Amino acid sequence: MGLLRRGKNDSDKQAVPLEAAAPPPPPPKGEEKKSPGLFGGIRQYILDSYNGLYKIVLEPSMPTKQTIALLIVGVIIGMVWGYVLAPVVFYSANPNRLNQAAQNQWIKMAAVGYESSGVQYNMETVQGLLAQVPNPAGAIATMLADPNISAPDSQALNSIVSIAQSVAGAAPIEPDLVTSIRDLIVPILLVLIVTPILVLIWRLLFYPNFVAPLLDNFHAARDPKYRAERQRQRDALGRMKEEKKALEEMKKQTVADVELGSPVVQALSVYNKGGIYDYSKEIELGTGEFLGQCGSVIAEVVDPDPVAVEVWLFDIFGSQNLRKVFVTEAGMADPSIRTRLEDDVDNPAADIIVARPDAVLTIDSDKLRLQAKFSTLAIDASGRFENFRMQLTAWQKEKAAAPMPMPSVTATVPAVAPIPAYAPPPPPAARPMSDYDNLQFDPPPPPAARPMSDYDNLQFDPPPMPAARPPVPPPPAARPMSDYDNLQFDPPPAPAGAPSLGSLMGRPPVPPPPSGIFADDDEDDDPFGGTGDFTPLNTGR
Question: pLDDT of 275-295, one tens digit each?
Fold first, then answer.
């Protein structure tokens, strides 16, 4: 549709309607769309939910695979460091976490304190000390069975044997393979599960609502240019909200035309001083049928001076480009501006309207009607548009022709019916004419109306005629003899005592060439040593 939009440089051009798109071909026979059924519907619902919820909402905020991999590698490196390279040093731990030798020393300390007269441990205290190691009775029996035990230690341990047998002892702590694997796998699983959840909470909830505003305010406080840009964006957003609200109010307050009924299109064109103003809107029915376009722009003859606004309408049915102009009172009072506007429109008396809050501009084409009026209007002291909101309302004049009614079908069929004769289809004149049957376009100008250019009457000189040849070539006697027709060559010198070829043919002997003419008189003057000597040809002259 944007190709039919009328711009500033194509005011005299005719727009060509686009060809109607051909309907898609029907599916091949046997490949009609079948009902998916219950399971197919459930599967499609799951796929749609996955695409709508995860692919569109969650996936853009999910951590990347590289981030997860780096976290897992970090966890593994931390475990290797904490368990192998720099293991944890325990302190303030229970005796059940000590090795067996340390636990035996703990039991001996309790026995000596109970048996010794210097340090008094009562029975409850000894029971509490023995309860912190695994199997104290078994440990005492093992130490008493050792032949290397000293007599004082043996005496002290025998004093607490009955007490140790009454104590269950603490549970032993022994490392195993399952515990080690669990300690390695659980952190990795936590990274894989918890990290995406935390990242989603951060990116979707926490960062945009708390962190981003703080960072934006901090950036705006430090950078004046960024602060001004953010203010412009906020103002533009506020204007868009106001324009949307004003458009909704305009649609509520619009009264249907008495002749044409409800409008087809309602639009709001907004101008603010200092910005680029070039608004356009497609005129379409609710079914999607394209009727044309409308819009408003600073008039070309005064552009970029915002003293006049051109409102235009394009009707696709008649390929009509119509326009009228709103001009301020100061522009109307300026003879230069008024003259330029009058030269640019077809009917200055009806096509130029002074811009006032109650002014209404109406453009009528064959099939459409466009009405433009200001809902708000502000003009500065110099007589230029400061800002305004222009309501554009379009109606369709003629509706599409209703389809012909189908003939009724008789319910009863006679038993024997004669075959009806072939009836030709109705002529084209009998078919109701649609909006596309009478499209007319301006014919191209005739060749005579076009001014003749410098290349339209080019003339060239004819090529020269060749000289006439004689019908019969002249005889050999009449043709002049050339230098090559009587060539004669000197015969080779005859051997001594043998007659020459000339004497045999009855010719006198040829004398030698004179000296100094064809031969060098002085051999010392020849720099080539005689290699350039030759015998001239006898031409017979």
Answer: 788 889 899 988 888 999 999
